[in-house]
Amino acid sequence: MSSSTLVIAGRIINQLVRDRRTIILIAVVPLVIASLVGVSVPDKKILDYTAPAILAVLILFFGFLLTGISFLRERSQGTLERLMASPVSRLDIVGGYLLGFLLFAVVQTMILFFYLIYVIKVNYYGDLWQILVFQVLIGIGAVCMGTFFSVLAKNEFQMVQFIPMIIVPQMFLCGLIWPVSQMPEYLQWLANALPMTYGVEGTRALMLQGQNLLDIGKEIGVLAAYAVGLLILSAITLRRGKG
Q1: Structure confidence at residue 1 (pLDDT)
Q2: Local confidence band at 187 (pLDDT 50, 70, 90 cut-offs)
């Protein structure tokens, strides 16, 4: 990791910390959604079963949204173009933004996670730290995904349109609403190609079955591969981000 990457990450962190409204939204919005989940599912057994999937879905959704909009704002303000004109590699630029946004995605992940566990009182069977580590991995994937699609978008409207195109279909196909195994075969093939499916399956294995990180090596590997692949693609396509 180069010093340029750390400098860019530090600038992103300082910029977001000074934006009080964004910080408040990062902290409050997940709590509001989690509270609605707790209130709208009165049956404790159903809540315990659905909460792991909801947790994984919300972490991916909020991480994607936070990163995508923030990265796009950097482009619209001309900051990214100035960095591109400097003697800094595109991978350093993307890596710096990734680290900067990742800090806030991790904070949001922890807020949502501990709120569900200690306030909503969702039961779990695995080790708490292993569950949290896996949620952070989902958050990393969300940040990489948000960065990549933000590079492809030319304005905020296009970025928002990626939500129903990229995120919403994954919500329907990841097993949150209906088990993947009971879907038509062609939808199972599609579901098994989506990162959110592995996030949901891994979280359920840890929280509902008491498995550990070694038991969900497949899910970890797929999510890590997605994150690395999207990071590389973001660096490659960054020159198209002059929107």
Answers
A1: 60
A2: very high
For residue 105, the SS3 value is helix
Residues in contact with 58: Cβ distance below 8 Å, sequence separation at least 6, in sequence order: 30, 33, 34, 112
Residue 209 has φ and ψ, to the nearest 5°, of: -105, -5
Which DSSP letter does residue 172 get? H
Q: Are 104 and 9 in contact (CB under 8 A)?
A: no
Rounded to two decimals, the pTM is: 0.86
Dist CA 26 CA 70 (whole Å)? 12
Rounded to whole angstroms, how far apart are CA atoms 212 and 196?
19
Identify the sign of the CA torsion 207, 208, 211, 214.
negative
User: Helix axis angle, 217-237 relative to 90-118, nearest 10°?
Assistant: 140
Q: Please state, in angstroms and rounded to a whole number, the distance separating the CA atoms of residues 80 and 235.
A: 12
